[in-house]
Amino acid sequence: MLSEALTAAAAGGGMAVVQAAGADGWAWFRVRCARLVGRGDADAEREALARLDRTAAALDAVDESERQRVRAVHAVLWQGEFASVIEALGEPDRARLAEQLIDLTGEFDASNGTARGAVGGNSFHGPTAVQTGDHNRQENHFGSDG
């Protein structure tokens, strides 16, 4: 049985999945989420990506009258997924995974319209370069000398 804090982290992760699905930062979120679930196992990561894609497709396929119900179902499914992964770990790894899950849900907070790693609502006129993420390097050269 998970502690209250670990259960809350799993529930927050489940809600984050359904909030992120279809949003600007979905591609970024799904990769990070699959890495958390996969825990270094490439096959588990691929399976998580496939399940995340099925969740996004299910949410995209329903009409507005069913959206809340389907979101609730998938939030609970992902809460269970995160809880299972947490339960399978030893105590120090549980706390570390819960912290990573909390960080992930905090980085993508669709409730306030922000998603780190996403760019939206911009107008670009002319050459443009956009980069998101942490600790990246980008060099851009525009024009005929670039």
Description:
- This protein has 146 residues and is mainly alpha-helical.
- It has helices at residues 4-20, 26-38, 42-61, 64-87, 91-107; strands at 108-109, 114-115.
- Helix content is 62%, strand content 3%.
- The protein has five helices and two strands, in the order H-H-H-H-H-E-E.
- Helix 1 (4-20) crosses helix 4 (64-87), helix 1 (4-20) runs parallel beside helix 5 (91-107) and helix 2 packs antiparallel against helix 5 (91-107).
Descriptive labels:
146 residues, mainly alpha, 5 helices, two-stranded antiparallel sheet
Averaging pLDDT over every residue, what do you get?
A: 82
Identify the strand order in the major beta sheet. Answer: 1-2
- CA radius of gyration is 18 Å
Number of strands: 2
Helix tally equals: 5
First and last CA, distance: 59 Å
**Uncertain runs:** 112-117
In short:
This protein is 62% helix and 3% strand. It contains five helices and two strands, in the order H-H-H-H-H-E-E.
Give the SSE map.
Layout lengths: L3 H17 L5 H13 L3 H20 L2 H24 L3 H17 E2 L4 E2 L31
Antiparallel strand pairs: 1-2
Helix pairs in contact: 1-4, 1-5, 2-3, 2-5
